[in-house]
Structure formats: C-alpha cells, structure tokens
Amino acid sequence: MLSGMPTSTQRRAGSGRGESRSGEPPPAPRPLTVPVLDSHTHLDIVGGDPAAGIAAARAVGVDRLVQVGTDLPSSRWAAELAAVQPAVVATVALHPNDAPRLGADLDEALRGIEELAGQDRVRGIGETGLDNFRTAPPGRAAQERSFRAHIAIAKSTGKPLVIHDRDAHADVLRVLDQEGAPSTVVMHCFSGDEQFARECVRRGYLLSFAGTVTFKNAPGLREAARVTPPDQMLVETDAPFLTPTPYRGRPNAPYLIPLTVRALAEATGRDLDQLCAAISANGDRVFGPWQR
Questions:
Q1: Cα(277)–Cα(259) distance, rounded to whole angstroms?
Q2: Which of helix, strand or coil describes residue 170?
Q3: Structure pTM?
Q4: Helix or strand or coil: residue 250?
Q5: Cβ–Cβ < 8 Å for 93, 150
Q6: Are the CB atoms for 89 and 148 separated by under 8 Å?
Q7: CA distance 147 to 60
Q8: Other beta carbons within 10 Å of 155
Q9: Would you state the pLDDT for residue 2?
C-alpha cells in the first residue's frame, strides 16, 4: 500500500455511497483473449494492496485501469497511485454529492482539483456531474455550480470529462449544452434507456457500461448498448460497487470485467474479441497512452 494514502473510510466521507459489500470475493472469471481496460474503478475502496488488485486483473486480461477520484483525498490518492503503477491512470474530481456538503469550502476544493488536473498521469476530470437521487433540491444549485467548474477544468486542460449522472439525464445535457461540452465526454456507468443512448451517441459521447448491464431487471441498458457503436463504448466496474451477475451484492473488483464485457458482446450480438479490441482502442484514445 502506498504510504500516506487515505483510508477507505476517509475516502467515502462525502460521496454518500458507502454501502458495504458482503461475502467472499467472487472467483476469477475465464480470461479474455484480447485485453481490455477497466475505465472506472475505486481501488481505494476495494481495499487491500492495489498492486495485488492490478495483478489479479491482468491475469484475466484486464491490463489497464482508470482510478477515479471523488474528493480531494481520493483524487490525490489516485494521482499518487498512477505515478507509481504503469497500468493505472487517474481522474480527479469532486463527486456531485460532495458539492452541497462542502459549502463555503467548495471553491477551495475546486482549486485543489484544478491543481491536480495538471499532472501528466491524471488523464481525466471526473467523476463529476449531477445526482438527483441523493442530492435533494436545496443542494442542487451547488452541485450544478461544481459541475460547471469541472467542465471548465476539462476544457482548459484538454482532458476528458467523466460524468456521474443519476436520475439527471436532461439536466446533464442542459448544462453541457449551456457550457459547451469538452471534446471528449464519458458517461460513466451509463444508466439511460435506448433513447438517451441515441442522444449521447449523436453528440459524440462515449458510453461506459458497468455490471448493471448484466442485471435481469435492466433490459433498457442492453437496448442502449445495442445502439452504441463500438467506437463509442467503454466498460467499467465502478468497483467495489455494481458487481455483475451472478455475483451481485458481493465485492466487485477490476478482475471481474470479463463478466461484463461478455454480457455486452452477447447483448449486442458482437464478436467478443472484436468488441474487446474496440473498447481497448477507445481507452487508449480517451485516456492513454498508459506506458511512460
């Protein structure tokens, strides 16, 4: 473990996503024959030795990871990890649910994110965006102000914007239209239906699908995947959350990406190896190159 890194308890103090995952970690899936990346993970919450998690992912064909920040401590943690692990790049941001809680400290926190954003191994600004599920109406003005500030940081640094969108599809598009979207936008853990997917695809955004696409109660997500061109698709864990079927509710980690990408191939009728190659190329185009 890297010295000086925040604990997982510190990491999730403001995000409102501290739900525990119980049970033993799922077994390793059958390895992929064409490597792919995990475009969004939280190794700081997964816990344990990050190097061991990276090695476990590599053993099943997940050769690159994007470690995502959601507050200043976790963003620093992500940048530090990416600086010493060639398989990792970082993104930095304040989670949408943090902005209302920061109050008068929001501007100072945004300045801290902007400073981190200049580092070479920091390859994206996110996860930022809007969350109408956990943030009540009184806090949404601060949340939107934070989102607009992150858009400005992404545009000034030329780095992709990684968006958290929960029950806020129309508002996310409204703010992006008003501010002018950065050249690269990633819809993290895509949660919309086919119609919203088409709108995002039309705008040139990338849609990143998580373990939710494997859930029996998510046919709309599979329909969204079917209308997403391979060159606009990414795959992620959002670990330790959103563990794919058949291990839903147990701890998630990057080594479980093969379960989700195989489900995507089945849902879209695409060849698995070709889909992995396309997703891998998208990762390099958006976040890479990984190697120094």
A1: 16
A2: helix
A3: 0.94
A4: coil
A5: yes
A6: no
A7: 35
A8: 16
A9: 47
Q: In the predicted model, is pLDDT for residue 20 greater than 60?
A: no
Identity of the amino acid at 201:
V
Query: What's the CATH number for 31-287?
Result: 3.20.20.140
What whole-number distance in Å separates Cα of residue 51 and Cα of residue 12?
A: 21
- How do strand 233-235 and strand 122-131 relate by DSSP bridges? unpaired
HEC assignment per residue over 100-152: HHHHHHHHHHHHHHHHHHCCCCEEEEEEEEEECCCCCHHHHHHHHHHHHHHHH
> Other C-beta atoms within 10 Å of 122: how many?
23
Largest CA distance in the chain: 51
Residues 6+ apart with CB under 8 A from 184: 159, 160, 161, 206, 286
Structural domain boundaries in the chain: 31-287
Q: What angle do CA 47, 252, 144 make, to 5 degrees?
A: 85
Query: What residue has token string 């501290």?
Result: 18
Residues 268, 161: Cα–Cα separation, whole Å: 26
pLDDT digits (tens, 9 = 90+) for 41-72: 999 999 999 999 999 999 999 999 999 999 99
